[in-house]
Amino acid sequence: MNILLHICCANCAIYPLEVLRARNLRVHGYFFNHNIHPYQEYSRRLQAVRHWAAATNLDVTYRDEYRLEEFLAQVAAAPEKRCDYCYRSRLEETARAAAEQGFAAFSTSLLYSRYQQHDHLRELGEQVGRRHGVKFHYDDFRVGWQQGIQASKALGLYRQQYCGCIYSEKDRYHPRVGS
Q1: 165 marked as binding residue
Q2: What are the pLDDT digits (tens) for 79-97?
Q3: For the domain with range 2-173, which CATH number is right: 1.20.1270.10, 3.40.50.620, 3.30.565.10, 2.40.10.120?
Q4: Which of 11, 19, 53, 60 has its CB 3.0 to 4.6 Å from that of 152, i.e. a possible disulfide?
Q5: Which domain of life is it from (predicted)?
Q6: Are 91 and 6 in contact (CB under 8 A)?
Q7: Residue 86 labelled as part of a binding site
Q8: Domain locations in the chain?
Q9: What's the alpha-carbon Rg for the chain, to the nearest Å?
Q10: What CA–CA distance (Å, rounded) separates 111 from 70?
């Protein structure tokens, strides 16, 4: 079976790629991350994926689109729902590409992170998969959290400190109310 794997960053894709390949799935990567800001962060992550993909012999389709205005317009009115838009928009584009290119299924490296909302990701993935007529492959890749971290350090990959959106970066530095 061939599967299109949305890649949020190289670090999060290491373990999922190993698991999917170990199951004899033919994996093709898909980089579309218009949520990552600022541009320097987006660029670092894109270059890390390019480096890692070359080292692991993974073919990747790169949608190198820095769409700050679109992302902000979609989440500015309700930043507490930013994850919903972020997940949905990237899964939607991955499912669309998977269907157009004849993949049997699609998935996302977001399922590797212990910080992501797995139930919501699964629900959205299944919804957009049905809409595009392609199966969403859910796997709880969090079991390989430490293995992925060790591998990314051994490879010398750029390791980000937040999910990628400007709101998440703010949360890293700005004191929380009541703190």
Answers
A1: no
A2: 668 788 889 999 999 999 9
A3: 3.40.50.620
A4: 11
A5: Bacteria
A6: yes
A7: yes
A8: 2-173
A9: 16
A10: 24
